[in-house]
Amino acid sequence: MITTEMQERVRGWFTGRLPEEWTVEPPAVGVDREEVTVVVTVADVALGDAASEAERAEARAGRARAFREETREARMAIAREAEHRFERKVSWGVRLGSGDGAHEELWTHVSAPVMTRLRQPQRQVLDTLVEAGVARSRSDALAWCVRLVGQHEGDWLAELRTAMASVADVRDRGPAA
Questions:
Q1: Contact call for residues 152 and 167 (beta carbons, < 8 A)
Q2: What is the mean pLDDT of residues 117-141?
Q3: What domain of life is recorded for the organism (predicted)?
């Protein structure tokens, strides 16, 4: 379990460590047992109101690519420091724009294998997704299901994580602390 204090420490470190010219707002930092994911929000492209959505999408994709290439060495140096400090791999991403039209990319993020035991009815769900062409494999189908739950139950999951973090914080301050 990742405590609130750990989340805050990692987020604070990256907020202070990243060059100011990289961000228009503090980075979004996610932490789990294997990885720290840092998503930097950079200035959006300035195209004017006459630009089509396709033009805006391509301009944002180009800006994201440029940011990735131009900051590669500095990001790698920062990641090495953070990996030593927090004992987790660091993954990077960038975000441009806001709302439904925002462009977000993640690079070199960890894809950790997760073992699970499924009964036949659950395997049949995965197999249906594979046979329908929604997923290439059972693994992809399971990842698709997890993403879908994450999208549709986001508020509930956030509330659950907050409650779990509170329990972990209380446990850390307990008699054995």
A1: no
A2: 91
A3: Bacteria
Tokens describing residue 6: 């750990």
Per-residue pLDDT reduced to its tens digit, 103-120: 999 987 788 788 889 999
Only one residue has tokens 């307990």, namely 174
Length of the chain as a residue count:
177
Question: Per residue in 84-101, pLDDT tens?
Answer: 999 999 999 999 987 777
Q: Ramachandran region of residue 83, left (φ > 0), alpha (ψ -120 to 50) or beta?
A: alpha
The answer for residues whose C-beta is within 8 angstroms of residue 1's C-beta and 6 or more apart is 164, 165, 168
* Cα 170 from Cα 177, distance rounded (Å): 10
Question: Where do we find the tokens 């959505």?
Answer: 53
Enter the pTM of the model: 0.72
- For residues 91 and 38, is the Cβ–Cβ distance under 8 A? yes
Chain centroid offset of residue 31 CA: 9
Residue 2: closest CA among 26, 29, 20, 23: 29
Cβ distance 14 to 27 under 8 Å?
A: yes
